[in-house]
Amino acid sequence: MKVSKRRLCLLIMASLGAGHALAQSTTGGIVGQVAPGSGDTVTVQSSNGFQRDVPVDGRGRYAINQLPLGRYTVSLKQHGAVTQERKDIDLRVGVATDVSFVAQQAQDLSGVQVSASAVPSIDVTSVDSRTVITAQQLAKLPLGYSAESVAKLAPGVVGNAGGFTSATGGSLASFGGSAANENAYYINGFNTTDPLQSAGGLTLPYGSIDQEEVYTGGYSAQYGRSDGGVINMVGKRGSNEWHFGGKVSWDPASTRASYDSTYYANGLPPTPVAGNLYDPRKQNRMWNTVYDAYFGGPLIRDKLFFFASAEMQKTEGTSVGTVTSSSPATHYTYKAPKWYAKLDWNISDSNILELTGASNKRTTNGDIYNYDFNALRRGRQLGHMDEIKTGGDLWNAKYTGYLTDSLTLTAQYGKMRTQAYQSPVGYNDALTYVTGTENQNPAITGGGARSSGQTTTSIFDPKQGNTSNNLRLSLAWAVGNHTITAGIDNLTAQAVNQGSHTSGPGYSWSYGFTTLPNNPLAPSLGVGAPGAFANGEGGYYVMKNVSNSVASVRSTERAQYLEDAWQVTDRLLLSLGLRNDAFTNYNAHGDAYIEQTRPQWAPRLGFSWDVDGDSSFKVFGNAGRYYLGSPLAPALSAAGAYVSTSQYYTYGGITADGTPTGLTQMSGPVSANNAYGVLPDPKTVTAKGLKSEYQDEFLLGFSKTLGTDWVYGAKASRRVLRTGIDDFCDVDLITAAAQARGITVGSVNSCYLINPGKANTFVVADDTGAHHDITLSNRELGFPHIKRNYYALDTFLEHPYDGHWYGRLDYTYSRSYGNTEGLTQSNVQSAGPSQSEDWDFPSLMVYSNGLQGNNHKHQLKAYGYYQFTPEWMVSANLSLISGSPKACLGLFGAENGDPAGYNSNYHFCNGVPAPPGSTGNLPWQKQLDLGVNYTPDFAAQKLGFHLDVFNVTNNQPTLNINPHFYYDATGTPNPLYGTPLVLQDPRYVRFSVTYDY
After folding, report:
1. 133-148 pLDDT, tens per residue?
2. Which of 58, 269, 14, 231 is nearest to 132 (CA)?
């Protein structure tokens, strides 16, 4: 059926900004044009019986927004009688689908279906940048069973450089150069983002995903709390027909290639365990099975529907740790149960109620064994791994009321509870944890490591976890050429009994060695040279470490937004949005230590221009500001009464259990962060008037059809971090400034949360308890201005599925540079939000400007599938990603000093300035995944056999290295410098059997 330009021009007018009325991204829309005299009303009816009727306006157009996802029949009626009908219209999340009716000769047109050419290839009603992957595509492509694996199909989305994972084991992704914990996660409109660390969120069972929407930029004012990206999962729902099915997948150890072992890259420690071997990864083995089942259908036909699914993933294996690990070898089992249930009630044609329940958990247990690293052979059992339980449950209720043909109300409320249970099995509190055994004095030990065998480092409160609740209300009003949406988006979160204390007697021992025993170990902390103390002449010393932190803290996040999708002309759509975010964080005593409640306006401005008026050529752009609230974790440290100290000794002997004897004290308990267990005054936790982290984003792009079978396009984007939050620990600088003003300081915080790269005002208490403001300019603080800039050019070529094959090719050229990565610091694997080493002291930021850890200059992605016959299909997923920059951190300056007491963490490499990225790049990441699907005719294509091969070429490049050039402040070379810490997974094969009825 030929599509006229006139009809599509009017269709754009009909959309009334439908794409933005749908921005909560749990719904879709249907819009279209009706030929004069063909009909006066349009009826849409879903496969679960939901029905809506709307009139055709005077210009022959109609629009029905915020429809539940599903398959629809669209009927055009004249005086109540059906004149034309379109069947099997599948909605896509957040998109308005064109279903138009042209003039027809008098004939029975019932049952006519829309052909592929009747639906525009390009959605001209959206102004954002997103990728939507449907359940049908998920079933065909060779992908890992995780939300992040799907998200990495989108341009500019890559695995994070630090190897960070979520609480349930998912590998986190970086969007557009941002830190891996600056993303937001949603299930059916509910925010499931981890409130403690912002590290991922709860996700759906893979087989329950109806559509996964990946926002990479330009999203509307209805979304916030992210300056990375958004992963939005919409779950399946029941219909008027009962369906059931399941899946069994298995990737056995026998078909998994060996992991590559790693070796010391910068010399050897004093007492090497097994030569230059560091991590015998080649000895690791693992296998994985997944069981998935679902069923759904009508409880009351056309009224009440149910869908439920369950998934169990079990991973089992043996792992050998590094030669310095306190857990040399383990046999482990991970179980990751998930379930999802949804109830849909069509109360009437104007009222819908949806109830969602979901669970995403993970349990870990196993045994720990001794290991002979020279013979590469497992020895006797030493004990058990901690029993760990993470993840949690959520429930969510959503009401949609179509109050009139032009007024729609949505109300949504949900709660989430996650756990972080960790308990040692067979724990013996009489044993002391000992580490650094490779640095023990061989004159005492004879060259063999001595340890108690204690494998438990920390003891956690068994009730620790997190809770959050999310309330959303919105009212959308279509009036004239405007669709105006107003709403609120409120989130409250709490961390419960989070934290731990050191195992055993409450402290651990860590052995150290320096080749320069007459140099002070940490002069800024008052720790002298071991050679000045008895038994320290050889450079051997030991540290007594104490850590203790358990607290409950909470936060509230409030937002209001107003948005207008304005169809200015039949070809030009403007999206005008404004959001106001407010954040408050509370310490363990319930006192607010961050109050960002003054208006924080975040404008979102976008446009979509249908150049030719026929949806074949779209130019779009967007400019927006995005605010990010502070996670709960900093309240446990910067705003908490935590202890983290080390006390230095020399020693004359070592017992059989690794305990040092003949101790000579070199220092009292010291802490580079002044963490001595005192709950700080909430006024002294942050800089006064601390501003939220926020980022500005700009994008401009186009999409265009190429003939009848192809679509191509490009998008240029730029992201600029305007303000960040990190901890600042040079409290002596604050004290000196106060004393210079005649103030006798009674107390300061161990570290302050500040807006780095700007002037900050610090609150100090004098010896009477009175508070004083101490303002220090950025020059006085000694910092550069904060910088994180990202720019990219994304290009794509796509062949939509035509019944035979689908393919897409994306190429991204990008650069992410500056002096901060954001909430994490991947080059040193620092996952704690706003708690990286950056900005702690001015000397740490000298020569800090350069390429950031998540920078990947080139990204080429290609994926697709080909249906050879109704029974056979092949698929592929290829990614070629240039390596992230190497990092080299050493002592300060040519003289190898340690002004901050942070050892080898300055941007100097062996005395030479080393800005990030100046020492080269890691290897390219190359991965090809292939799949074959067989759905035999004898089972009517309901039974499927699948074979997927991941990383076909078994490429295992290094993704992260140890960046520390020296071992400590004495200038002793670190044998681990340059040693790989994170590598790409090896090749493995997955076999699957599916049945869908």
Report:
1. 999 999 999 999 999 9
2. 231
